[in-house]
Write a structure and sequence with these properties.
- The structure is a single chain.
- By secondary structure, the chain is an alpha/beta fold.
- It has one domain: Aldolase class I (TIM Barrel, Alpha-Beta Barrel), CATH 3.20.20.
- 38% of the residues lie in helices and 17% in strands.
- It contains eight helices and eight strands.
- The protein has an eight-stranded parallel β-barrel, surrounded by five helices.
- Strand 7 (164-166), helix 6 (175-179) and strand 8 form a beta-alpha-beta unit.
- The two termini are 25 Å apart.
- The model has no long low-confidence stretch (mean pLDDT 92).
- It comes from Pedobacter antarcticus 4BY.
- Keywords: Thiamine biosynthesis.
- Pathway: Cofactor biosynthesis; thiamine diphosphate biosynthesis.
- InterPro entries: Aldolase_TIM (IPR013785), ThiamineP_synth_sf (IPR036206), ThiamineP_synth_TenI (IPR022998).
């Protein structure tokens, strides 16, 4: 089953003074249709205290809710899918475990990663990092537009039906060059949720992708 994948994927993260719930609410009020809840610092009870109200917000606004990792929570809240950050995650087995109704995406850092995830049945692939990110600390070298051009050359041969989503330190100024590589869309976090006006920042990203 081909899944709905949004071109602009907003990712929440831990920010002092701005909860994941508030981030999701502000983004949805600004028009977000895809919220990825990313929190790796809380226990299950704390995660559900975020995820359940975020799911209600997403339902009210018609947005898809994706949760980073934590697939064991799939039946405890109205979650539409999961994003797996392990490039070697057994996507096929996880999709079989979750059921066809769930969207499952994976993270890739190389073209080989992307091909492996696509062949395993990933519904979309988050590819990066495009630039150094303050949201997700990593020792991986930024790929830049050159790295995305290399990937898309490979994708045109091996991944024609898998949406590629750029991730990692992306700002509004980067969108045009990234989209020119042929990718499907953008995932953004700090450029939106740390902006002076988060709603306006989301709307700017959205307009540049349409």
């Amino acid at each position: 089953m081909k899944k709905y994948i949004e071109k602009l994927q907003f990712i929440t993260h831990d920010i002092p003074g701005l909860s994941h719930i508030d981030q999701a609410r502000i983004a949805c009020e600004a028009g977000a249709k895809w919220i990825q809840y990313r929190c790796l610092t809380k226990n299950d009870q704390e995660l559900l205290a975020d995820i359940i109200p975020i799911a209600e917000i997403c339902d009210d606004w018609g947005a898809t809710l994706i949760v980073t990792e934590h697939i064991h929570l799939s039946k405890l809240a109205d979650i539409q899918g999961f994003h797996l950050e392990d490039t070697h995650a057994p996507i096929d087995a996880i999709k079989e475990q979750l059921g066809e109704e769930f969207t499952v995406g994976g993270t890739a850092h190389t073209a080989a990663d992307a091909v492996r995830l696509a062949l395993a049945g990933a519904d979309y692939i988050g590819y990066g990092p495009f630039k150094t990110s303050t949201t997700k600390l990593t020792d991986l070298a930024p790929l830049g537009t050159a790295g995305f051009n290399i990937l898309m050359e490979e994708a045109n041969t091996h991944l024609p039906d898998v949406p590629i989503i750029a991730v990692g330190g992306i700002t509004a100024a980067d969108i045009a060059a990234l989209m020119d590589t042929g990718i499907f869309g953008i995932a953004a976090s700090s450029a939106i949720n740390q902006a002076e006006d988060m709603g306006e920042a989301y709307r700017e990203f959205y307009a540049l992708l349409r």
